[in-house]
Amino acid sequence: MDKDFWVHVKDTFFEFLMHIGPRAIYALVALVIGIFGIKIIMRILKRVLRKSKVELSLQSFVGSLSIFILWGLLIFLIGSILGIEASSFLAIFGAAGIAIGLALQGSLANFAGGVLILLFKPFRVGDLIKVNEVLGFVVEIDILYTRVKTYDGLIVTMPNGNVSNSDVDNRTMEPYRRIGLNFKFNYDVDIDFVLQLIIKTMKKHPRITHDPEPDAWLDSIGEYELKVIARCWVPSEEYYPAYWEQLLAVKKALDAQGIEMPIPKRTIYQPEMKEVMKNFPPQKQSEVAENGTHK
């Protein structure tokens, strides 16, 4: 290649740098300022949401959505500084949006699920829920996922799309929950005494409510036992501690009165030897009569 070609390439390159160089510097400055600006705006937004006492689930969702919008605006601003026309930029965003939408259909469904959760509020941050066999406390609801902390300390992240389309058992939505205890007793037990003992023991618990009062009754008569059901109401957040404490208290009260749980029983009928010998042939009957045994 001749020398003129390389001179032309060099001149074109320097011309490009002179044209794009200042814009690139401005874009870099805008990027740095924009990053710090986003951080400051997010701090102010969180402070405002916290002072306005907006519920935690909405705070988390608004924070996630705000970051997404702010970064989109920053990218648009940098593109404009670099000389990309608004129409071209929108066309690029539109094409990219279609491609991303097709590739991330699940994420869009999760976003829609997050919006539905915030609108209809089947649960909020801090609620105890059971969904898809996961039982735990809601710790975060963002634009795509809901995070639940189980009783054994695990953090389970569930897509909002799945959560919004599943049955959600919210165990703290109501202020009170009912505790149910099931017991079995022998037939010879004094059932009236047992029922009064259980009710008296349950009433001693400090966390239960007295409207309605604790109660107990004979539920059914089984093959070898009497089945008793006992009920009381407690604040929802106290359910599990109260359940375990009530169960232990009733067990101790029954033990103190010498009341035992039933053991399965079977009656075995053994016929007399004469009745058994009727089924033997005569020769065997004589052998049994002589020897007193049967082989």
Automatic annotation (TrEMBL):
Q: Determine if Membrane is one of this entry's keywords.
A: yes
Name the InterPro entries on file: LSM_dom_sf, MS_channel_C, MSC_TM_helix, MscS_archaea/bacteria_type, MscS_beta-dom_sf, MscS_channel_2nd, MscS_channel_C_sf, MscS_channel_TM-2
Q: Which Gene3D superfamilies match?
A: 1.10.287.1260, 2.30.30.60, 3.30.70.100
Membrane spanning residue stretches: 20-41, 61-84, 90-120
Q: Which residues form the Mechanosensitive ion channel MscS C-terminal domain?
A: 181-261
| UniProt keyword list | Cell membrane, Membrane, Transmembrane, Transmembrane helix
Question: Where, per UniProt, does this protein localize?
Answer: Cell membrane
- Where the record annotates domain Mechanosensitive ion channel MscS, the positions are 107-171
List the membrane topology term(s).
Multi-pass membrane protein
**Coiled-coil zones:** none
> Main site of residence?
membrane
The answer to whether the entry has keyword S-adenosyl-L-methionine is: no
Family, according to the entry, reads as follows:
Belongs to the MscS (TC 1.A.23) family.
- Name of the protein in its database record: Mechanosensitive ion channel family protein
Q: Which organism is it from?
A: Mesonia profundi
